[in-house]
Amino acid sequence: MRPNYDLLYKIAENQAGYFKAEQAREVGFSWERLSSNVKNGKFLRVDQGIYRLVHFPGSPFEDLFVAWLRTGPKSTISHESALAVYELTDVLPGTIHVIVPRTASRRRKGLRLHTNRLESQEITKRKGLPVTTAARTIADVAAAGLAEEQIRQAIHEALRLGLTSKEELLVQAKNRGGRVAQIIQSTLNGDIDS
């Protein structure tokens, strides 16, 4: 099979220019051809087995793209990592958080994998990455114990930027209960009262 640059471009285009070596092999690129394209300046090797087409700009979230490609197409960036993509707080996650299917491998160096149930309407694309919606992200970090001040900041920012609604947040509060419901409801009540 001859390498099909058009098909590789279509794959990479949907992934902000990034692709896995396995994806390239599926459209005819051998290891030698991948190496040749790196040497010729067409591809940039980002990490072991992960590349970017050079005419796509690098992403400030390249580490998240690498994590997502490594964990598979059914994985979703979540928790503090999703907060960073949305730029809702000043929290700098020390670990990359990804929700993966229950059948996925649970061991990945440098990644915090979650197997939480995730509905399709709780996933969106942001900056080329599949991430949990803003409301789901806020509920996840609240359930995981992020500082209340940071959660309140994320709620205010998400509402201000139109990334979620009070209704979506209240659905998450109702579904989660406990600390999640308490923080979301008290923050929203404070918004209503002010």
Give a brief outline of the structure.
With 194 residues, the chain is of the alpha+beta class. It has 2 domains: 5-53, no CATH class; 62-193, no CATH class. 47% of the residues lie in helices and 15% in strands.
List its traits.
alpha+beta; 3-stranded antiparallel sheet; 3-stranded mixed sheet; 47% helix
Word description of this protein:
With 194 residues, the protein is α+β, with helices and mostly antiparallel strands. The protein has 2 domains: 5-53, no CATH class; 62-193, no CATH class. Helices cover 47% and strands 15% of the residues. It has 9 helices and 8 strands. The protein has a 3-stranded antiparallel sheet, with helices on both faces. β2 (43-47) and β3 form a beta hairpin. The model has no long low-confidence stretch (mean pLDDT 92).
Low-confidence stretches are none
* Radius of gyration, CA atoms, in whole angstroms: 19 Å
Q: How are the strands ordered across the major sheet?
A: 1-3-2
Distance between the termini: 65 Å
Instruction: Give a quick account of the main beta sheet: strands, pairing sense, barrel closure.
Output: 3 strands, antiparallel
Shape: elongated
- Strand percentage lies at 15-25%
Helix content class: 40-55%
Give the integer mean of the pLDDT values: 92
